[in-house]
Amino acid sequence: MKNLIFLAPPAAGKGTQAQLLVDKYAYTQISVGDLLREEVEKGNEELNNIMTAGKLVDTKIIVKLLLKKFNDENCNYILDGFPRSLEQAEALEQISKLENIDLGLVIYLHISKEEAKNRIVGRRTCPKCNRIYNCYIEDLKPIECNICDDCKVELTHRDDDNDESFERRYNTYYNETTPLINYYKNKNVLYEIDASVHTDEIFKKIEEIINDKN
Ligand code: AMP
To answer: What is the pTM of this model?
Structure first.
């Protein structure tokens, strides 16, 4: 299996698609956002402030967390939320050479800013299994309002999922991350998918790509 990198604006569904791939294929999801939130849970207030402000965390901190993860898990990975800047793309190439890891395919999930904003308001996460739900997207609603289908615990709303933080995160995405689209296009590894459609449809398209390339 080829490793995967997800490139997408906030709330395009990269976490949801990564979970679906993990359930069906031998992939391990490495969500940089989740790794950082784990650090916040351990009491790192500085990280919390950067994330709530919608800014990017220092690449060196993330590289440290990623290296630990790569050493822990010797497998095919889905990199969800990294790289998010040219500096990070270059750092990833260095890590890949160092650890002898193939960069793999880059899946670019495309949605408009308006769509992303609407999705952010309804997004909920299970604090136990990290499954992502959305109160406004029919196929991502929990069976029972605000309760995880699997763990039966109350769903949480992320601190940074509000209008103000969204604007800042989207601007950061636009300024820092969108240059990666051309960067990976030029390397012939980028696959663009319209992510404004039904979750299952997006998943089918991702499957077509990975089955074609493996
Ligand atoms: P996410 O869960 O992917 O939406 O990420 C939540 C927040 O974590 C972002 O708004 C950033 O503050 C931080 N973050 C996640 N991935 C990165 C990254 N690759 N580089 C810097 N900061 C990141």
So the answer is: 0.86
CA atoms within a 13 Å half-sphere pointing along the CA-CB vector of 165: 18
> What is the share, in percent, of the chain residues with pLDDT greater than 90?
75
Rg (CA), the chain: 16
Residue 74 reports pLDDT greater than 70 = no
Q: With 80 as the cut, is the pLDDT of residue 72 above it?
A: no
DSSP string, 163-185: HHHHHHHHHHIIIIITHHHHHHH
Provide CB contacts within 8 A for 57, sequence distance 6+.
36, 47, 50, 51
Cα(76)–Cα(70) distance, rounded to whole angstroms? 10
Q: What is the pLDDT of residues 105-140, one digit of tens each?
A: 999 999 999 999 989 988 999 999 999 999 888 889
Q: Which two tokens stand for residue 89?
A: 């793309």
Cα of 139 from ligand 1 centre, angstroms: 25
On the question of pLDDT at 14 being above 70, the answer is yes
The best mutation among 14, 35, 36 to test binding of ligand 1, ranked by most ligand atoms within 8 Å of the C-beta, falls on 36
Residues with CB under 6 A from ligand 1: 10, 32-33, 36, 50-51, 54-57, 62, 81-82, 84, 88, 160, 169
* 169 Cα: distance to centroid of ligand 1 (angstroms): 9
